[in-house]
Amino acid sequence: MTVGIAQSNKIFYSAAAGSGNPVIYVGAKTGRDGIHGATMSSAEFNEDAEEKRPTVQVGDPFTEKLLLEACLELMESDAIIAIQDMGAAGLTSSSVEMAGKGGLGMKLNLDHVPVREEGMSAYEIMLSESQERMLMILDPNTEDLAREIFNKWGLDFAVIGTLMIQDILKL
User: Is residue 4 part of a domain?
Assistant: First the structure.
């Protein structure tokens, strides 16, 4: 169990809210690193381990610090409705978890996801476990403010979808 003290108005949750609200991708670009990272961490290693090397996530502490600072700055406004990191299973996990917790659906346009490499498949984009990425639901009236903050910190900011009433994930 973890116990702590926090101001109740400074706690951010991941439950999406507000049909029609924008789904925002922020942070580093998506790459092929980390695909199957969660399954690989549970796998057995043998002489084929070298073939699994591309699944290793490539962390960037400097970009992580920039993302942290940008998120903290945006948290000082009333812009963020929901926020979640893209960890294991990447965009798949974060989008489904956020929509599910809010009892909503989500429509994503993967053509808008910032990528490091051309020609990435939808499968690769959705499952990439590239580090230093967050998914947010913003108050639509604050999109320009949020974009300005992330641009200031040199991070990608992209509207990649919208929330919808139907409880499905549509790509």
Answer: no
- Which residues lie below 8 Å from residue 132, measured CB to CB, with a gap of 6+? 27, 28, 59, 60, 63, 64, 67
Alpha helices in 46-171 (DSSP H): 61-75, 90-102, 122-127, 143-152
Q: How far is CA 125 from the centre of its chain?
A: 11
Q: What is the number of structural domains in the chain?
A: 1
Cα-Cα-Cα-Cα dihedral of 114, 136, 141, 170, to 10°?
70
Q: Is 123 inside a domain boundary?
A: yes
Domain around 39: 15-170
Instruction: Please tell me the pTM assigned to this model.
Output: 0.86
Tens-place pLDDT, residues 43-52: 555 555 555 5
- The CATH number covering residue 37 comes to 3.90.650.10
pLDDT tens string 140-171: 999 999 999 999 999 999 999 999 999 999 99
Distance CA 121, CA 146 (A): 28
